[in-house]
Write a structure and sequence with these properties.
heterodimer; A: MetI-like fold; two-stranded antiparallel ribbon; globular; disordered N terminus; B: mainly alpha; MetI-like fold; 2 domains; 16 helices; extended
Chain lengths: 316, 385
C-alpha cells in the first residue's frame, strides 16, 4: 500500500510457511480448499469462455455453446486461428493495436517525467510557495475527470477567450495524439506527484547533500541519482498508468474519436460489440486481442503491478 | 507519510561557474554564446517537436511508422523539453539561476494542471448554468432537469444501488477469500493471482466477456450459446433475455464490476490480514476461541481501517462507472442508466452542454466528501507503515 522508501515487504505472492505439524486448528482442510476452488472456478469461467470461443470456427460457435468443446478437445474441425486473422485485418484491430501503443506509451512516460521533476523540486529544492503548490496539486485528486471533459474539448476545438481576448490558442488538438497525451497526463499528474514526492522525499538526505558538495547541479542529481533510486516507485506508477490508459474508453472516445483510423482497442471493441453483437467468433478474438498486453504485464510484473494498483487506489 | 513537507537540508552554495582569468573580450563572447544558446536551444527543441506533431496529424502516413514516431517523440520529447529548459537556466546570470530552476522543475506540472483541471472545473460550473450550447444563462434549469427528469432520477437511483451493492459484495467475497486462502497449505499465490487477474482487463473487455455469459437468442432463433441460457436449456427451461429484465438487469451489470474489483479487495485485505501478529491469533486460539470468533473478534477489527479504504475506493469507482453501462447499450430502454453514463449521453450524444455539465457537477459534489475522506485515510495508512 505504501510507496515510501525504504520499500516495505512485498504485498503478496509468497505463500506463508506451512503451519507446523499437528496444528489442526487452522483447518486448511477440505472446506477451505473446496471453497477456494469454487470461487476460482467461478472467476475463471468468463475468461475461459472468451478464450475458447475465440479459437472456434464461426459455424461451430453459432451452433453449440463453448462448453461443449470439452467433448471434442482434439477434433481438428473444432479449432481455428481464422477469427484472429479476421479481427486483426478486416476488423481493423491491428491498426487499433498500434494506436493503443501510440497513445499509451507516451501517456505513461510524459506524466511520470513531469511528475518526477516536480516531486524532486517539492522535496529537495527551496522556493516560495512550495508547500502551497504541493497541497494544491494533491487537492486536485478530488476532481473526477468527468468535470474536465467538456471544457478541454472546447479548448481543443476552439481555444479559449476571456472577454474577446484569446487566452488559449486554437491548436486543433482534437483527434490528435498530442491532445490525448496531454489529457491523460493531466488526469494522472496529481496522483503521480503525490506518490513520487512521498518516495523521493523519503530518500536519505545525506546522499543528496554529498552530491551537492561534490558540485553536482540539481539536474544531474535528479537524473543520475534520484531517478535510478526511485525505480520501484516509478515502475509501480508506470504500470498503473499504463493499464489505466490502455484500458480507458472514455478519454479516448472523446479526445481521439471513434474514426476507423484513430480508434484505439477499447473503442474498436466497443464499436464491434455495438454493430456486430451476434458475431461471437469475432467479438471474442477481438476482446482477447485487447486483453493480451495487460495480461502479459500482469503475469510478468505481478509485484509491481499490485503495488501500483493499490497505490493508485486514490485516483480521481 | 504526513502532510508536513520536511525542510530539505540547506543547499551548499553552487560552485562558481566561470573559471577565473579570462580576458573581458572572451567573457563577452562567452556571454553572447550563452545567450544564443539560451534562445536557440529551447526554440529548436520546440520547433522539432512541433514539426513531428504536425507529421503525426498526417493521417495518410503509415500507421506503424506513425505509432513508432509517436512513441519516440511523446516519450523522449518531454525529457528533451526539460533538458532544454534546464540548459536555458544555466545560461541565465548566476544570481538568478538557482532562484529560477525550481520553477522550471515544477512549472510544467502546474501549467498542465491549471489548464486541464483547474480551468475546466470552473468552466464546467459556468457551463452548467448555460443552455444547450453552454452559453447564455438559464439559472438552475439544468439542475432542475437533473433532479426531475425520469431517466435522470432512475440513473441516480441506479447509481445509489451501485455504490451500495458493489462494494458490499466485492469486499465480502474478497475478505472471505483472503481469510480462507491464508489457511491454504500451498497454492495461495496462484489462487490469489487468478482472482486478481480481471483487474488487468479493461471494462470494455470485461463487459464483452460477460455478455457472452448473458447472451440470449429467442426460441427458434438458433442455439443459445450464452452460459446462463445454456444451463436453462439444459434443464429444459426456455431462455431468458437477461439484460432486459428490469430492474434485475442492473444487478447483472454490477456483477461485472464485482468480478473486476473483488481481486483488488482481496489482495489489499490479504496483506492486512498477514500483518496481524501471529501471537495474537494464537493466544486467542489457546484461550479456546473458535475460528469464527477469531475472525469476527480479532481479524475484522484489526483490519477495519483497511476495509474502510477499500470500501471508499470502490464507492468512488462505482459512482463513476460508465464503460459497463455504455458498452451494454440501450440504457434507457433497459432502465440501467447511471449518472456518469447520462453525462456522456447528454453532452456527446444529445449535444446538450448545459445538462452534461450540470450532471458532471452533481457527480463532482457527490464524490468530494468520499474522496477527501479516502485521501485522508490513505495517508494515515501510509503513516502507519
Amino acid at each position: 500500500m505504501t510507496l515510501t522508501a525504504p520499500l516495505p515487504e512485498e504485498v503478496e505472492t509468497e505463500a506463508p510457511p506451512p503451519p507446523g505439524e499437528g496444528e489442526e486448528v487452522r483447518r486448511g482442510g477440505w472446506f477451505v480448499r473446496i471453497t477456494i476452488l469454487v470461487i476460482v472456478a467461478l472467476w475463471l469461467i468468463p475468461t475461459l469462455g472468451v478464450l475458447v470461443t475465440s479459437f472456434r470456427p464461426e459455424s461451430v460457435v453459432n451452433e453449440t455453446g463453448w462448453w461443449t468443446t470439452v467433448a471434442h478437445l482434439f477434433d481438428s474441425g473444432e479449432w481455428t486461428l481464422q477469427n484472429y486473422r479476421d479481427a486483426l485485418d478486416t476488423g481493423g484491430f491491428e491498426n487499433a493495436f498500434l494506436n493503443s501503443l501510440a497513445v499509451t506509451i507516451p501517456a505513461t512516460v510524459i506524466p511520470i517525467t513531469i511528475a518526477a521533476f516536480a516531486a524532486y523540486a517539492f522535496s529537495w529544492m527551496e522556493f516560495r510557495g512550495r508547500y502551497v503548490m504541493f497541497v494544491a496539486v494533491v487537492g486536485l485528486l478530488v476532481v473526477p475527470l468527468q468535470m474536465a471533459l467538456i471544457p478541454i474539448l472546447k479548448l481543443y476545438s476552439g481555444g479559449a477567450r476571456l472577454g474577446g481576448v484569446p487566452i488559449f490558442p486554437d491548436l486543433e488538438l482534437n483527434g490528435t495524439f498530442l491532445g490525448i497525451w496531454l489529457a491523460h497526463t493531466a488526469f494522472g499528474l496529481p496522483l503521480a506527484v503525490y506518490l513520487l514526492r512521498n518516495f523521493i522525499g523519503s530518500l536519505p538526505s545525506s546522499i543528496i547533500e554529498s552530491a551537492r558538495v561534490d558540485g553536482a547541479d540539481h539536474f544531474t542529481i535528479f537524473w543520475r541519482l534520484v531517478v535510478p533510486l526511485s525505480v520501484p516507485a516509478l515502475a509501480a506508477f508506470a504500470i498503473f498508468q499504463f493499464l489505466w490508459v490502455w484500458n480507458d474508453l472514455l478519454v479516448a472516445r472523446i479526445f481521439l474519436g471513434a474514426t476507423e483510423e484513430n480508434r484505439v482497442l477499447t473503442i474498436a471493441l466497443q464499436t464491434l460489440a455495438g454493430s456486430r453483437a451476434q458475431d461471437w467468433h469475432l467479438l471474442t478474438s477481438a476482446a482477447f486481442i485487447t486483453m493480451i498486453l495487460p495480461l502479459l504485464v500482469f503475469f510478468s510484473l505481478q509485484r509491481y503491478f499490485i503495488r501500483g494498483l493499490t497505490a493508485g487506489a486514490v485516483k480521481g | 507519510m504526513t502532510t508536513k513537507v520536511e525542510e530539505p537540508p540547506a543547499a551548499p552554495p553552487p560552485p562558481p561557474e566561470a573559471p577565473p582569468g579570462r580576458s573581458p573580450g572572451q567573457a563577452a563572447g562567452l556571454t553572447l554564446l550563452r545567450l544564443l544558446g539560451a534562445v536557440v536551444v529551447p526554440i529548436a527543441a520546440f520547433a522539432l517537436l512541433w514539426l513531428t506533431f504536425d507529421f503525426l496529424r498526417d493521417a495518410d502516413a503509415n500507421r506503424l511508422v506513425l505509432a513508432g514516431v509517436a512513441i519516440v517523440v511523446g516519450g523522449g520529447g518531454v525529457f528533451l523539453l526539460f533538458w532544454a529548459m534546464n540548459s536555458t537556466v544555466n545560461h541565465l546570470p548566476e544570481r538568478f539561476r538557482e532562484g529560477v530552476r525550481p520553477y522550471v522543475f515544477v512549472g510544467p506540472a502546474l501549467v498542465i494542471l491549471a489548464v486541464f483541471l483547474v480551468y475546466p472545473v470552473i468552466s464546467t460550473i459556468i457551463i452548467s448554468f448555460g443552455d444547450s450550447r453552454g452559453e447564455g444563462f438559464v439559472g438552475l434549469d439544468n439542475y432542475d432537469f437533473v433532479f426531475s427528469d425520469e431517466s435522470m432520477l432512475r440513473s441516480i437511483r441506479n447509481t445509489a444501488g451501485w455504490i451500495v451493492i458493489v462494494p458490499l459484495v466485492a469486499v465480502t467475497i474478497g475478505l472471505a477469500f483472503a481469510t480462507l486462502a491464508d489457511r491454504l497449505h500451498r497454492g495461495e499465490a496462484v489462487a490469489k493471482s487468478l482472482i486478481f487477474m480481471p483487474m488487468a482487463i479493461s471494462f470494455v473487455g470485461a463487459t464483452v466477456t460477460w455478455t457472452l455469459i448473458y447472451s440470449f437468442r429467442p426460441e427458434g432463433f438458433g442455439t443459445n450459446i450464452g452460459l446462463l441460457n445454456g444451463i436453462k436449456q439444459g434443464l429444459g427451461l426456455s431462455p431468458t433475455a437477461w439484460l432486459q429484465q428490469t430492474p434485475w438487469n442492473n444487478l447483472l451489470l454490477m456483477v461485472i464490476m464485482i468480478w473486476i474489483q473483488t481481486g483488488f479487495a482481496m489482495v489489499v485485505l490479504s496483506a492486512a490480514i498477514k500483518s496481524i501478529p501471529d501471537e495474537i491469533i494464537e493466544a486467542a486460539r489457546i484461550d479456546g476461541a473458535s475460528e469464527l470468533q477469531v475472525f469476527r473478534r480479532i481479524i475484522v477489527p484489526s483490519i477495519a481501517p483497511t476495509i474502510a479504504v477499500v470500501v471508499t475506493y470502490m464507492v468512488i469507482n462505482s459512482m463513476k462507472v460508465f464503460d459497463i453501462v455504455f458498452v451494454i447499450g440501450n440504457a434507457e430502454t433497459n432502465e440501467t442508466e447511471v449518472i456518469a453514463e447520462r453525462m456522456i449521453e447528454w453532452f456527446f450524444i444529445s449535444n446538450h452542454d448545459g445538462r452534461g455539465a450540470a450532471i458532471a457537477v452533481v457527480l463532482f459534489v457527490a464524490v468530494i466528501p468520499v474522496m477527501v475522506w479516502n485521501i485522508r485515510r490513505f495517508r494515515e495508512q501510509e503513516a502507519l507503515r
